[in-house]
Write a structure and sequence with these properties.
By secondary structure, the chain is an all-alpha fold. The chain has helices at about 30-40, 45-65, 75-100, 100-105, 110, 120-150, 155-170, 170-180, 185-200, 215-220, 225-235, 240-265; strands at about 70, 75.
């Protein structure tokens, strides 16, 4: 009788490693941008609110305060016009970014983990859409100012201040995205309204804060402080300070990195 050799245990076949090449620009494309923008503009109630509210605030403030007084290279009405343009851009971009909270509640961001879209490309996509909505708001406010003929300032200051307002609103697009990933959808809009209004007041957007005061010191640590001074500087003739630029850059970095962190955490495989 001969002994039979023990049959070695069968080893399971190795699982193939699936690697998806990252597309160019991390998945960001003009077609994706157009689809995302069309989806945002479909919410007409939000779009109308972003356009109507800043225009209404401008008309109320300029008529109640009186805009004929001189301010630097223009008048008070021009100062109010710039402030409301910034506020409208800030409100529009923050709201557009915060809409991601609704997408999270519907499971959309979990679906994104099935795509090769990178976090940076997704943040860039949202920021571009937010800037378009901010541009609509700024355009509406400036058109209202031109029609009312109250604001008086040099011709080049109109596009210059509008461009600064729109570029600076990227800070709040990142802020909205960060909030959208951080808070549940049922709370984000309530916090958003209070947060944007508080930042506008503390940043001196609705009224000039005396330089060197305690309130000025507190305001210098808020996100609106740098942008508020930068956008008004061409009108008032004030020299641009490095601290204003640093404030805008630092707050943008904080909110953008926070949004990327939360996006990665939200789409991570469990």
């Amino acid at each position: 009788m001969t002994a039979t050799a023990a049959t070695p245990a069968a080893t399971p076949p190795a699982q193939p490693v699936l690697e998806r090449p990252v597309p160019r620009w991390g998945g960001f494309s003009a077609r994706l941008f157009a689809l995302e923008l069309r989806r945002l503009l479909r919410n007409r109630r939000t779009v109308i609110l972003m356009v109507v509210m800043p225009v209404a605030l401008f008309l109320i403030a300029s008529s109640s305060v009186g805009g004929s007084g001189d301010v630097g290279h223009g008048n008070v009405a021009a100062y109010i016009l710039i402030s409301m343009g910034v506020y409208g851009a800030m409100l529009a971009t923050t709201s557009a970014g915060a809409m991601v909270a609704v997408e999270r509640s519907r499971g959309w961001t979990r679906q994104l983990r099935l795509t090769p879209l990178t976090p940076m490309a997704y943040i860039l996509l949202k920021a571009c859409c937010a800037v378009v909505l901010g541009g609509l708001s700024v355009t509406a406010v400036y058109l209202a100012g031109a029609i009312s003929t109250g604001p008086q300032m040099a011709g080049y200051l109109w596009p210059l201040t509008a461009a600064i307002a729109l570029a600076g609103s990227l800070v709040f697009a990142a802020f909205g995205l960060f909030l959208g990933y951080l808070l549940p959808s049922e709370n984000v809009m309530q916090f958003l309204g209070l947060g944007v209004a508080a930042m506008a007041f503390l940043g001196g957007l609705f009224y000039p804060i005396p330089a060197g005061s305690t309130l000025d010191l507190v305001a210098s640590f808020t996100p609106m402080y740098g942008l508020g001074h930068l956008v008004h500087a061409p009108l008032t003739g004030a020299a641009v300070q490095v601290t204003w630029v640093v404030s805008v850059v630092v707050w943008f970095a904080i909110f953008a990195l926070g949004a990327i962190w939360r996006f990665r955490k939200d789409t991570a495989r469990g």
